[in-house]
What we know:
The chain is 38% helix and 18% strand. The chain is α/β, with parallel strands linked by helices. The protein has a five-stranded parallel beta sheet, with helices on both faces. The longest helix has 19 residues, at 200-218. The two termini are 31 Å apart. The mean pLDDT is 93.
Amino acid sequence: MRIDIITVMPEMLEPFLKESILGRAREKGIADIYVHNLRDFTEDKWRRVDDYPFGGFAGMVLQCQPIDNAISSLKAERHYDEVIYVTPDGEQFSQPMANTLSLAENIIILCGHYKGIDQRIRDHFITREVTIGDYVLTGGELAAAVMTDAIVRLLPGAIGDDASALNDCFQDRLLAAPIYTRPAEYKGWRVPDVLLSGNEAKIREWELNESLRRTQELRPDLLTD
């Protein structure tokens, strides 16, 4: 899988992409992740990529030309399944969306900045607009990092136990059951006896019941959507 991230702040992303599961996935060739500086695609001699919005609105807007050049140059080299713009008014990112995107071959993620991007880019280039929550960040870099992490960890070989990702929260629209490790008793706090029983059927039944209980208490919306 290949992910190309276009940003005006590549220095925010590179350290994150070198660590942990993402770093190992890149080293193993499981995921090719490239960060592109939008300023490298501007035709402005001062490397500017933004300008004032028409209509007298406040803030600055990323211009069409450098984004067009960046996306067009990438698309000239290969087909992209999605060109994603991360923006507060996009579709809510979710585990099912991460599952779907993990099956893609090539993805572009465009990070907004300032007040966002010229609407014409959204109209003519973007195939999907995504948000990670109902709040505004300085730019789309953190959202792109979150999405990339959620997608790449699903790729075969990215984590030590592939089955582990299938048991994560939200995979079946349920929160995960509580988990425990050694010692079985600590300060008088005991691990539930069923987890020590070795009875696989009973353990799976307990896991499902605990997942349902926690979802009902903490995220009942998942059970009704």
